[in-house]
Amino acid sequence: MSDSAQNHHELIIIGSGPAGLTAAIYAARAELKPLVIEGLQAGGQLMQTTEIENYPGFPQGLQGPELMINFRDQAERFGTTFLTDDVDTVDLEATPKVIKVGKTTYTADAVIVSTGATARMIGLESEQKLLGHGVSTCATCDGYFFRDKELLVVGGGDSAMEEATFLTKFATKVTIIHRRDEYRASKIMLDRARANEKVEFIEWAAVTEVLDDDTGAMTGAILTDTRDGSTRRIDAQGLFVAIGHDPNTLLFTDQLDMDENGYLITKAPGTQTNIDGVFACGDVQDHTYRQAITAAGSGCAAALDAERWLAAVQAAGPVETLTGATLIDDAVVTT
């Protein structure tokens, strides 16, 4: 068998978070024998999460990495193969689709993109050290663990206001730290935060160090005045960084349609992108919910969409003759 034949797959999934691995489970059970190119940092954002208590089916909770290992093992059980490497380039408009990893070229009849998004961080060594041990990027995911604690939220947009307000359900006090006294947040979100008696604001300040006092868990932070450079300590048991997310879509620039923030656009209610046979799921196209459960759900949808598209293409004729084909109600219409 030639290398080109060995490296051809009906379906390639790029990314290995909850969306990509769920897609792999469904696709493998449909006997599509998917290849998951999982990346050198496999598993998505949950690999940096400690305890998860809101994923259905695990009443006692479990660790983020443990959940992702379960996802991967389940996909592998049904026949998914994995490549632990990063994709260098793609040509998704080609027939078949072309994906290059190092010096090796892979081709696929269909592709599912599930490369996720990356939370923006402050950029501190101490922040990385305490990620999952007091530092978080998701109030919905982790707020429950901070009951009766004093918390900090960094940011000045709607996300920061929303996270701070949500955290008041658990915390005794939430302090929003912002670099200036003007906010990107909408008036309604800012007013809501200001009206909450548990929310305080510190303006003209930046978090420049996260402290643990050698306990292994966050105990406070150093704030630096953005005007005069003076510093002070503030005690807190949690820090939520709410300065946005960046979808991992650079690889698909000038090929897949994106919104103004770089998230992939899919054709509602499905997961089809602007290129036939290319589907997207998870945080790479979801800037609203960004939860493991919603990512998994969209991964399921992407696998079902891909399976139906492949079946329709195969019923209509060889893939290479159907450039521009569109799946509409399980039928192929050439354009």
Give a topology summary.
Elements: H1 3-6, E1 8-14, H2 18-29, E2 35-37, E3 51-52, E4 62-63, H3 64-77, E5 81-83, E6 89-91, E7 97-101, E8 104-113, E9 117-119, H4 125-129, E10 135-136, H5 139-142, E11 150-154, H6 158-167, E12 173-177, H7 187-195, E13 199-202, E14 205-211, E15 220-225, E16 231-235, E17 238-241, E18 245-247, E19 278-280, H8 292-316, E20 326-328, E21 331-333
Parallel strand pairs: 1-2, 1-8, 2-5, 8-19, 10-17, 11-12, 11-17, 12-13
Antiparallel strand pairs: 3-4, 6-7, 7-8, 9-18, 14-15, 15-16, 20-21
Helix pairs in contact: 2-3, 2-8, 6-7
Structural class: alpha/beta
**Overall pLDDT, averaged?**
91
Shape, please?
elongated
State which percent range the strand residues make up: 25-35%
CA gyration radius, whole angstroms? 22 Å
Cα(first) to Cα(last) distance is 34 Å
